[in-house]
Every structure is written in C-alpha cells, then in structure tokens.
Design brief:
The complex is a heterodimer of chains A (765) and B (174). By secondary structure, chain A is α+β, with helices and mostly antiparallel strands. Chain A is 52% helix and 22% strand. The longest helix of chain A is centred in the C-terminal third of the chain and has 57 residues. Chain A starts with a helix and ends in a 12-residue tail after the last strand. Chain B is α/β, with parallel strands linked by helices. Classes of the chains: A alpha+beta (765), B alpha/beta (174). Chains A and B meet through helix 3 of A and helix 1, helix 3, strand 8 and helix 7 of B.
Chain lengths: 765, 174
C-alpha cells in the first residue's frame, strides 16, 4: 500500500494527502458528534427514568403496605404524561406482579434480568428498576421502560446528513488542493528536469536561477552548490589523472597493464624504450608474443593466469636475466590484480624495477657486515677480558663498585661488591632498604645521614661503617659515593665504591690500643721520675751535712791543726779528702739535676760582665791546668755585658773548662767569645783526646762516660755535661753544642741570649 | 391464590413464626399487620414521653396473637411495642391503639365512658363501628380487606391520618 503510494506522481500525492487529511478530520468530527449525541441521550433517558421512578416509588408505598392494587395502578397511570415511557410495573416483595401500566394497549414482557435493580439496555428500550423501600421495609420493585425507537430514527437521519456534508467537504478539499499543490510540485519538477538535463548532457555549468525563500529555495541553492563541487571535483580528478600519467610516463621503472586476454592496455615510456618502440601508444593491443619468444610468452601467460584465478598479487619477485651484452641484470617484478567497482578482476598491473646496482651495493654491504661482526666479536672478547681483569683487580683490592638507580630504587654492582656484602649477584630491587639491612644497626643512622646529605647537597661522601653479612659475619668497609644527575639536573643515580678495610681496621685498632698502653706506661714513668727527683732534692741536705763534716775535719787534720801526722797518714787523709770532695760534687750535681728536673731551681737574672765571668772561671781552673802543663788563653775582641744568672753560667763554663783540662794531656785550651744579634756564644776549645762521631749523640746523656783510657784516670761524675745541658737549656734558655775530631780535640760552645726572657724555650712541657 | 401468597410474604416479613397460622387464618394476620402499618401513616399529636408503644386488644381474637409476634420483631419510632389484652371494657387502660374485636364492638360506649380515648386510635372490625365513634374500621370488599376512616373521630381524639392513608380508605356511609 505504502509502496504503491510512493510510486505515485508528486502532484497526485499532494492532492491525496490533503484530501485524506481533511476527510479524516471531517469523519472524526461527525463520528464524535454522533457518538456524543447517543451517549447524551442515554444518560438523559436514564436520568429521566430515575427521577420518575423515585416519585412513583414513594407514591406507591402506602398501596403496597395495604395491598391496594387499584391505588398502585392509579399511581402508575400518572405516567401518561410522559410519552416515551411505554410500560411500568410494580412487583411486591415476593416477586408477584402487583400493578402494571402500559401506554399502548400492549403488554410488554419483562425478563428476569430486567428485575435486577438498575438500568438495562435492550434494543430500542431502556428499562430501569428500583426497590421500593420504606422505613427499612423492603416493599417491592418498581420497573419502568422507556421506548427510544423514535430517537434512534432521528439519529440515523442526522448521520446521513453528516455523511453528505463529509462528501461535499472532500470534493471541496480536492478542488482546493489541486490548485495549491502546484506551488510545491512545480519547483521540484523543474529541479528534477534540470538534473535530468545535466545527467544527460554532462554540462556541470548549468544552475537553477530561481529565487525562492522556502525549503525549495534551499534545495535550489544546495543543487547549485553541489554543481560547483562536482565541477571542482571534475577538475581535481583531471589533474590527478594527469599527474598519474606523468608519473607513469617519467618513472624509470617499467609499468604496464594487461587485460584478461593478456593484451597490453597501458605501458609507459620506459616500457616502450625497453622494447624498442617509438611511443607507449604502440604497446596497446600487443601481447607478450609480440615482444618475447614463444616459450617466454607462454610462461608469462601461465603465471598471469595463476594471478587471475587466485586474485593474489605477486609482489617483489626477484628475477635474473642476461642483457644483450651478456651481463646479468637483476629485476624486481610485481604484479597486482586490477578490479572494477564491482570487485571483479579485469586485468593486472605490472611493475618491473632494475635493481642490478642495488644488488651489487648490497653484496658489498654484506661483506662489510661480516667484517663488522668479526670486529664486534673481537672487541667483545677484549672487553670481556678487561672486565674479568677488572673484577680480578677488584677482588684482590677488596674494592667493589656499585650503582644505585635512585628513581627505580635498584642496586647493581661489580662482582666484588656482591662478595664484600656476601650477597647474591644480580639486580637488587628496593635497593636502599636492602642495603640498609646489611649495614650494622649501630651505623645505620650515620650512613643514612651521609647518603641523604650527599643527595641533597650533590656532593660526594665517604664513610667507614660495619657490615653484617647475611651469614652473620661482620666486615668493615669504606664506602664512597656521589650522585649523578640526569639531563634535567635531577638526581638520578648514585655511584660509588666499597672497599673492604676489615684487616686495616683491625690493625689500626691494635696499634691504637698499643699506643694507649705505651702512653699510660710513659705517664707512670714520668710520675716515678718526678718522685725520684723530689726525693733526691729533699735528701741532698741530709747527705751533704755529714760529708761536709768529713771533708772539713779531714782538711783540718791535713793542715796539722789537730796534731802531727806522718806521711802515710797524710797520704790516706789526702785520699779521704779527695774522695769526700768528689762525693760532694757528685751529690751537688745530682741535686742540681734533680732540682732542675723537679722544677725547683729559681733563676736570678742579673747584669754580667762576660769578661769578668770568663776570667774568674779561667783563674779557677788555672792551677789544675798548670799541673798538667796546659795553657789556658782567652781570645776575644769584645767583652759584652749580658743579663743572665751569673752563678749558673759560671758553673757551666767551669764545667766545660774542667772537662777540657781533664781530657787534655798537652797543648792549650782556648776560650772564645762571639757576639751575635741576640745571642752570645762562649766556646771552649781544647786539644784533647776528642770524641768519636758515634759517641756524639749520647754525649749529653746522664751517667754516660765515653769509652776511653781516661775513664779510669780522670775523676768525674758522668753528670757534668748532662747538668750543663740542663742548666743552659732549661734555665738559661740557651743551648750547648759540640764539634770534635777523635784524637785532635773538641770544641764545646755555649750560646745564651743577651737578655734573659724568663721563658723556657726548650723542654717546656 | 396470588393474594394468599402476598399475604404470606408480608406476614413472613413481619411475623415469620406465624406463617403457618397465617395460612390457616390470613384475615386475622392481615389485620394485625395493617394495625401495625397504621402507625406509619397516623400521627399522634400529643407528646408521649413513655418508652413503650401500647396496643390494646379488647375481646378474644387471634389478632392479638399475631400482634404479639409482630411486637417481638418491630418497634414504632424507636419504641418497643407492648400488647395489652383486655377481656372486658372495665379492664381497659389508656393505650395508643385500641382494637375492638367483633364481639366487643358494642362495648365501645362503655369504654368511652371509662376513658375519653384521647390520643388513642380506636380500630374496629365490624360494620357500624364508625358510627359508634370509632376512628378506623376494617371492612371486607370483594374478598379484600380494606378500611374506613372517620376523620372527625380522629380529630376529636387529636390524631391525624396522612393523605396517603386517606387515599386508600374506602368511602364511608356518611
């Protein structure tokens, strides 16, 4: 039905639509009014019945109470005024007919259903029944019947009029639409005509020149726009076609196309040149039999038939042929199927590329590649060797290196690094946590701090810490590391070394404890020494007093004050006296040393005339020297005045002179004074036995007396030089030195500051 | 036959227990029903404060039995119905309806002597009862029970019969 409608002409469609629409509308209106009229009539009729029956029912109550049929029928007879009520009945409570009424002389029948309270519709009649009730007494039923037949007749005639009006309306609608549809159908028909013309003639320049403002106008403009687009596309297509032609023509490779009969339908310039043709157009219509030997052509056709049946292209097939000069030519050939718009194969497109040069280059390249592979293998081996030796070196040095990827938090390292930590080789995930677990718990905080600082300040760090290996053994390592930055300057890696210093660390610890022990012992010794010095100092008086008595009284005896003594006694007393003197000087020296060591000697600086001091010393020693036949001279051009302790300085000079006399058998002793800027030097030069070079270092030690024959003959305490050195260095802030040649003599030099500073510059502990 | 059926149904409606009796004596039954039905169409003008509606029956009659059955089932404007049986006129006490059985009709003057019958609906069942001053009298016309109404007598005792009732009454001789 709809399809039939679609095939109708536009004009017919428009008229049909309008007529159908208005017809439907009119019909609906008419139908509504008829139905409405019918309903309305029914409702009104029922209402009429209800009202009338109510009055009749109440009027018939007394007649029912007193069983007065006559009275009841009299009541019913009042219905004569209502022409449409055809019948009425009263039934008593037992269902017996009590009274009845009929408008015409015809008793209508009642069905049992009609006696049910309410309205009933049947045919032309409307029957209504209600109960007659008074004071709660069910007295009977009143039934009324309305004859609607007259009403239906008028309804039918009304419907007929409506139908007639409907027909007139349809005719008018047709006339109207037949005229108005032109305004719609004419422009569309015109457009259709134009399109037909364009498609017949192919003139894309045609435009519809009508100015309309409605949708048809939009259609015209759309059509015109479409025509412009089509023209543009046409042009583009033409250009593309030309470009394609150009490509095919100029491409150095051979391009051709064949139909299903293997006839050439296209060939480019290269193709023509290859086969010695004047122009590509000459190729069209030829077959392989025109260009190749029969065998070759047959082979080609067979191959192409395979392509046509399988519809699979043959791509980049390598082919080798001999050219006319007998050289091998390599060709890459491809054949593709050509399909039309219905996807049916209509031919094939062939493409042939001469790759002889490329092939040659490829071979050369392959050669290079082989060489390269060898080179790479060689280098790899070298690298492996280097790596192995590095690993060995690390193993020997107990030095490993590691790399921590901070972003990924992975750790990797050299073999030795894994050995030092006693863990498996391989990449370690959760690097920082794994590492920190290996660090001795007591060192973890400091190690973490060092790493954190290094990362935040981007400076290297070095830290020694202990490591607890997974097997429980403990190692000490020296860890060094520094951060590496990525291209954005962000901390990305930390690399470093780890050195196993467990053995060094152990030795260091041992050394340290040994040193501590030595220091403790030394301290103890010093205490003892101090104690000794104090003991001696305090004991000196007690020692000297009895000795002074011995010397004094022996001297008195020698001088004969206590009576005549014989020669032998004199000799003995002389020995006692000399020994006493020696002991006294020994004690004095010891006491002096002790005092100096105990720090109990005070210095009394005063102005000294050095000349006087030297003279006094020489005068004192003169008798002794004269006894041995030695001459003592003072050689000096100056006699400076200095500030120092006279007594102590004199003691030192005397000591040196006394030694010079003691160890010289002949020759002379000379005293020199030399002035320097801040110092004055006093030197005592003798021509004695001299001192061997090996003895020079111990010369100034206490109780050291040199191996010589004079050791026996010369008296001496062995403390002289020791005391001198102590006085000069520790009290007078000077120094003492010696130059000597064994067998030729010695020169001792004292140097003292011109002005006593009060500060002990030497041995100031 | 139809008539009897109707009477039966009416009696069944009011006095189911006496249906059988009604079949044997439908007239008395119907009279009892009509007596009760009169209460719906007659208005007692005097205000009556008692809680009972009194129906007196003078003389021996089955109507009294049927009335007692009705009294058990029905009421009059909310008041229970009490049936008094009077043997002799002297026994009569004031009541709302007083039924005179056929044999007692002539006792009417005595009753009037004793009571003034004010506010009492007097009902008889004998021709001439109206003439004696009765308000309503049952008559039988062509086999149907109908009744006469003495409007004057009703006015005298202060009662009003409704138009409906009057319409149904048969015309009196007067």
């Amino acid at each position: 039905m709809i399809k039939q409608f679609q095939n109708l002409k536009l004009r017919t469609k428009l008229i049909l639509i309008q007529v159908l629409t208005s017809g439907l509308l009119l019909f609906l209106f008419a139908a509504y009014f008829v139905v409405h009229e019918f309903q309305e009539y029914r409702i009104n009729s029922v209402n009429q019945l209800k009202t009338s029956s109510q009055i009749l029912a109440s009027n018939s109550v007394s007649s029912l109470y007193f069983l007065d049929t006559q009275a009841a029928e009299k009541v019913l007879s009042s219905l004569t005024t209502q022409s449409n009520i055809s019948n009425a009945w009263i039934h008593d409570s037992s269902g017996q007919l009590f009274a009845s009424y009929s408008q015409v002389e015809k008793q209508d029948v009642l069905t049992q259903e009609d006696l049910i309270s309410g309205e009933h519709f049947s045919g032309n009649f409307i029957t209504y029944t209600r109960d007659v009730i008074n004071d709660g007494d069910m007295l009977g039923k009143l039934t009324m019947r309305l004859d609607a037949s007259g009403r239906w007749e008028s309804l039918v005639s009304n419907s007929a009029i409506a139908g007639l009006l409907l027909l007139i309306g349809l005719i008018l609608s047709y006339i109207l639409s037949a005229n108005t549809q032109k305004s719609i159908s004419y422009p569309i028909l015109k457009l259709a005509k134009t399109i037909q013309h364009v498609s017949d003639s192919g003139e894309y320049s045609i435009r519809v020149n009508e100015k309309l403002e409605d949708e048809t106008g939009t259609l015209y403009r759309g059509f015109n726009g479409l025509m412009v687009q089509i023209a543009k596309r046409e042009k583009e297509l033409e250009e593309q076609h030309q470009l394609l032609q150009l490509v095919i023509k100029t491409i150095p490779d051979i391009v051709y196309a064949k139909d299903l009969d293997h006839k050439f339908v296209l060939g480019n310039q290269s193709f023509a040149e290859r086969y010695g043709l004047d122009s590509p157009d000459e190729i069209i219509g030829k077959t392989d039999f025109d260009l190749y030997s029969e065998a070759e052509a047959k082979a080609f056709h067979a191959a192409e038939d395979v392509i046509f049946t399988t519809k699979q292209p043959q791509i980049n097939r390598l082919d080798s042929t001999m050219d006319s000069e007998g050289n091998e030519r390599w060709k890459l050939k491809s054949k593709y199927v050509i399909r039309n718009s219905q996807d049916t194969v209509i031919g094939l497109l062939g493409y042939s590329q001469d790759i002889t040069e490329i092939k040659a280059a490829e071979r050369e390249l392959e050669m290079y590649r082989d060489n390269l592979e060898e080179l790479v293998t060689e280098r790899t081996n070298e690298l492996e060797k280097t790596r192995a030796s590095l690993a060995r070196a690390q193993e020997i040095a107990h030095l490993g290196n590691w790399d921590w990827d901070i972003i990924e938090n992975t750790l990797s390292g050299s073999d030795e690094a894994y050995n030092i930590y006693g863990i498996k080789y391989g990449l370690i995930n959760k690097g920082s946590e794994t590492f920190m677990r290996l660090v001795h718990p007591e060192d973890q905080t400091t190690v973490q701090k060092a790493i954190d600082e290094s990362i935040s300040t981007k400076t290297p760090y070095r830290i020694d810490h202990r490591v607890i290996r997974p097997d429980g053994s403990q190692r000490t390592v020296q860890q060094q590391g520094e951060v590496l930055l990525d291209e954005h300057g962000k901390v990305a890696h930390m690399v470093g070394t780890v050195l196993d210093i467990t053995e060094q660390h152990q030795i260091e610890q041992e050394l340290k404890s040994a040193k501590e022990a030595a220091e403790a012992a030394n301290l103890h010794l010093m205490e003892l020494d101090n104690l000794k010095s104090m003991f001696i100092a305090s004991m000196s008086h007690e020692l000297r007093t009895p000795l002074n008595s011995i010397i004094g009284f022996t001297g008195m005896m020698l001088q004969g004050i206590s009576g005549e003594i014989n020669e032998r006694q004199t000799d003995n007393l002389q020995r006692v006296y000399q020994s006493g003197k020696h002991l006294l000087s020994l004690i004095s020296d010891i006491i002096d040393i002790s005092k100096i060591e105990a720090g109990r000697i005070d210095v009394f600086p005063q102005n000294i005339s050095l000349g006087d001091l030297i003279n006094e010393a020489v005068t004192t020693i003169q008798p002794e020297a004269a006894k041995k036949g030695l001459t003592v001279t003072i050689a000096s051009s100056t006699w400076p005045e200095i500030e120092s302790d006279r007594k102590r300085l004199l003691q030192c000079v005397l000591n040196l002179l006394s030694n010079a006399v003691k160890y010289s058998e002949q020759g002379k002793i000379q005293v020199n004074i030399t002035e320097l800027e801040h110092l004055v030097e006093i030197s005592v030069c003798d021509t004695g036995i001299g001192i061997s070079e090996s003895d020079l270092p111990i010369l100034f030690e206490a109780f050291e007396r040199l191996e010589s024959h004079l050791r026996i003959i010369s008296g001496g305490t062995g403390l002289g030089l020791y005391l001198t050195k102590k006085i000069i260095q520790e009290l007078l802030n000077g120094d003492v030195s010696v130059r000597s040649t064994l067998g030729e003599g010695s020169t001792f030099t004292l140097s003292v500051p011109r002005k006593y500073s009060g500060l002990r510059s030497v041995n100031d502990e | 036959m139809n008539r009897i059926l109707t009477v039966c149904s009416m009696i069944f409606l009011y006095v189911s227990s006496v249906t059988l009796v009604a079949q044997t004596n439908p007239e008395s039954a119907l009279k009892a029903v009509f007596l009760y039905n009169f209460t719906k169409f007659v208005s007692w003008n005097e205000v009556d404060s008692s809680d009972a509606f009194l129906i007196g029956v003078l003389g021996e009659t089955e109507v009294a039995d049927y009335l007692e059955d009705i009294a058990m089932k029905k009421d009059v404007e909310g008041k229970r119905i009490v049936i008094y049986r009077f043997d002799k006129p002297v026994d009569v006490t004031p009541c709302n309806i007083l039924f005179f059985s056929a044999d007692q009709m002539y006792e009417m003057p005595q009753v009037l002597d004793k009571l003034n019958l004010n506010n009492t609906l007097s009902v008889g069942e004998t021709r001439g009862f109206i003439k004696l001053g009765g308000a309503i009298n049952f008559v039988v016309e062509s086999g149907l029970i109908r009744f006469e109404i003495n409007r004057k007598a009703m006015d005298q005792v202060g009662l009003t019969a409704s138009a409906e009732l009057l319409k149904l009454a048969t015309p009196t001789d007067e």
